[in-house]
Specification:
There is one protein chain. The protein contains seven helices and eleven strands. Strands 1-2-3-4-11-5-10-9-8-7-6 form an eleven-stranded mixed β-sheet, sandwiched between helices. Keywords: Acyltransferase, Transferase.
């Protein structure tokens, strides 16, 4: 089941191009997020020719004018992480994958939300306003990526007195909803709006027949981890990235 969650997450957070190289998935999206610009070696677990495969991946990412980034999960070849470290790859963004059974999720108390099942300019404007450092190139890549998903997706914005205070999205596949890009506006943080946004997404997901939810969170994001544990999410596995340049 855990590997299925990894597959759901790959499908839910799309990319602009995917190459399959000897069972490895190489994802490219103009550098927007490590998720969409990394090598995912979750198929073909053979460790034969590992150095050769890494070199080939490096060449392909160099051609795309991107740094080669490898995602290390429990599902990749056992020696891949050590081999990358020996080649000068640094560890980045240790993260946790968490899961929740939705029959335990509470009802939201704040329900003034906009939800659209397609990407809208209004949602994009709110999202980018909450991410002050999002470059024009990243904005363009994000809009392309999210516009081409074929999975059922809800784009949510939570309002307080007509002011957008939090936004994010939920993506449904096989009765499982993934949460992505949950963000609260800087001036409204630590007031419970992120929690209420998530509960609205989970309520929407339950109404659409889902039974479980998953999310991915960076381990050093302590406020987010505390929130997810409060909501009842539990860790099922961890992952990290390897890159020669810490991005």
């Amino acid at each position: 089941m855990y590997q299925r969650i990894e597959e759901y997450a790959l499908n839910a957070w799309p990319t602009l191009q995917t190459l399959v190289y000897d069972g490895w998935l190489l994802r490219f999206a103009d550098g927007y997020t490590k998720r969409s610009n990394s090598v995912n070696a979750i198929y073909n677990m053979s460790e034969d020719n590992l150095a050769l495969k890494i070199t080939k991946c490096e060449e392909l990412y160099r051609k795309a004018e991107l740094d080669a980034v490898f995602k290390i999960t429990p599902f990749v070849p056992v020696s891949l992480d050590q081999t990358l470290e020996e080649r000068g790859y640094k560890l980045a963004d240790p993260s946790t994958v968490m899961i929740l059974e939705l029959d335990t999720a509470a009802m939201p108390k704040l329900t003034h939300v906009d939800v659209s099942e397609s990407l809208t300019p209004k949602w994009v404007d709110t999202f980018t306003s909450f991410h002050n450092g999002l470059s024009e190139r990243n904005q363009a890549a994000m809009k392309k990526m999210l516009s081409q998903t074929v999975l059922q997706t809800g784009y949510f914005t939570l309002y307080q007195e007509s002011i957008p205070v939090a936004c994010g999205l939920g993506v449904i596949e096989d009765q499982v909803v993934g949460l992505f890009d949950i963000v609260t506006s800087e001036q409204h943080r630590n007031q419970g709006y992120g929690e209420q946004l998530i509960l609205n997404i989970l309520q929407w997901a339950k109404e659409n027949g889902t039974t479980h939810s998953y999310l991915q969170v960076v381990q050093n994001n302590l406020p987010a981890n505390r929130l997810y544990e409060k909501l009842g999410y539990r860790e099922i596995y961890s992952y990290w990235y390897r890159s020669k340049t810490i991005l």
